[in-house]
Amino acid sequence: MRAVSLTMQRPIPWLWILLAMVLLLAPGPAGRFLLDLLGGLTLLVLLLPLLFGAAGVVGWQLLRRRLRTCSACGFTSVGSAVCPACGTPFAPSPSSSTSSGVPPSVEIPASEATIDVDVVDVDDAGP
Ligand SMILES: [Zn+2]
Q1: Which of 39, 48, 70, 121 is the least crowded, having the fewest Cβ atoms under 10 Å away?
Q2: Is-above-0.85 flag for pTM?
Q3: What is the pLDDT of residue 32?
């Protein structure tokens, strides 16, 4: 009697389990839709941090390309021609003035200089 009363107090939701199994295992459109939904949700949850990370990196790169630091006071602003703090006109950024006639030899990256050193023949330099 006691066991029967226990099972009656805690009924197992067979109806919902059966419904879920039917929905999941049924080859019908409802089961497929549910499986697609679950797969899509799982994919979304897995890919969302990656997407946010990539978007953040791209956004930061775009922002940093437009960032300008004042040479007079060090104020950093985005997308303005003059410093909003002291009014000094910003120097043209190197990325936007590559086609306007500034010689590229002003700023040589350290990696390119290292490559030039590596190209030099060792046999000619030796005694
Ligand atoms: Zn300034």
Answers
A1: 121
A2: no
A3: 76
